[in-house]
Specification:
Blueprint (H helix, E strand, L loop, with lengths): L6 E3 L10 H10 L20 H12 L5 H17 L2 E8 L1 H6 L4 H19 L2 E9 L4 H13 L5 E7 L11 H10 L3 E6 L5 H7 L6 E4 L7 H10 L2 E4 L1 H6 L11 H6 L3 E4 L11 H12 L3 H14 L4 H13 L1
Parallel strand pairs: 1-2, 2-3, 3-4, 4-5, 5-6, 6-7, 7-8
Bound molecules: adenine and zinc ion (ZN).
The site of zinc ion (ZN) has 6 residues, from loops.
């Protein structure tokens, strides 16, 4: 059983953590009808294929409208993670989704920060926020998101990332976006790459100022690229159940996590959009134990890798690593 192992998560989309129950509560309190077709008969989110998933995600995210909503989504997610043994979680937020719901950048950051602080006060867990742009909203929007991070720094916003549809939006288009986030805002950087995109896209993503990659699993199709990722110490934020649920791999047996680990690539375990994929961070550790045969010692090593790659100041990192050693 992995229940008592200390865990850390680096890759989860905050808007994608809101459960059907929370989405219904938010819709009610904001006086909205829940969008037609959002749920299946069994109450889970309805989607079929990755692009449809992104649409359902957008519809559910539209119920998160106020600073208080962002606080509640963050707080409820982090407290649930702490109950599964998480000691550190980075949540990816999307100012574009907040803006579409009528909320300012600062409002969404303040809500998230309160959620992190309230969860810390209650559980002792630590959290940070990675502000993300959405590649299929285009380069102009992404530039604006990067500029917002530079204009409105916040101590709990420590990272910059990019999600969305990889197809048709190659990483090179976003070089200036990442320059602003890294040099002007001083943020640590990651980007989704090699979830759907081929190895060539991962190579291009590695020209951005990133220390980690979201997914990166399709690197396994190019052994020289795997070698480069291992040699550079780039950390892959791997989300096994997400990849199986969206159909990138037929099942866990086809998932490349064990191959990447055997090649010396640093990996971490993550839930991505937990209620959409019927998972949690605790379940990802359990699956890694059951499906990939990882020992508790190896799983603790993945938590250590996540803390070593976390977007935190060195004092916080040292405290988290001490806590890991003590548990
Ligand atoms: N946004 C939310 N979930 C995502 C995923 N798995 N890939 C890319 N963008 C996303
Ligand atoms: Zn993701």
């Amino acid at each position: 059983m992995t229940r008592n192992l200390p865990k850390a998560e680096l890759h989860v989309h905050l808007e994608g953590t809101a459960t059907p129950d929370l989405v219904r509560r938010l819709a009610r309190r904001n006086g909205m009808a829940t969008p037609d077709g959002l749920f299946r008969d069994d109450g889970t989110f309805a989607w079929d294929g990755f692009l449809d998933f992104l649409k359902t995600y957008d519809a559910a995210a539209a119920t998160i409208r106020t600073e208080e909503d962002y606080r509640d989504v963050t707080y409820e997610y982090l407290v649930a993670c702490a109950a599964e043994g998480a000691i550190y979680v980075e949540v990816m937020s999307s100012p574009d989704h907040a803006a579409q719901a009528g909320l300012s950048y600062q409002g969404h950051v303040e809500g998230i920060a309160r959620g992190i602080e309230d969860a810390r006060a209650e559980t002792g867990m630590e959290g940070r926020c990675i502000v993300t742009c959405v590649r299929h909203f285009g380069v102009e929007r992404a530039l604006e998101v990067a500029r917002l991070t530079a204009r409105h720094p916040h101590p709990l916003v420590t990272g910059f990332g990019m999600g969305g549809d990889e197809a048709g939006y190659p990483p090179a288009q976003f070089a200036e976006v990442y320059r602003i986030a890294r040099e002007e805002a001083g943020l640590a950087c990651t980007t989704h790459a090699g979830e759907w995109g081929p190895p060539e896209q991962i190579r291009k993503a590695l020209e951005l100022p990133v220390t980690r990659l979201g997914h990166g699993v399709r690197s396994v199709e190019d052994p020289a690229l795997v070698e480069e990722i291992a040699a550079r110490g780039i950390v892959l934020e791997v989300c096994p159940t997400s990849n199986v649920a969206t159909g990138i791999y037929d099942g866990y047996a086809a998932h490349p996590l064990p191959t990447l680990m055997a090649a010396g690539v640093k990996v971490t375990l993550n839930s991505d959009d937990p209620p959409y994929f019927a998972t949690t961070i605790g379940r990802e550790y359990e699956i890694a134990s059951r499906e990939f045969g990882l020992s508790d010692e190896l799983l603790l090593g993945l938590t250590r890798t996540a803390l070593e790659a976390a977007f935190v100041d060195e004092g916080t990192r040292a405290r988290l690593l001490e806590r890991l050693a003590a548990e």
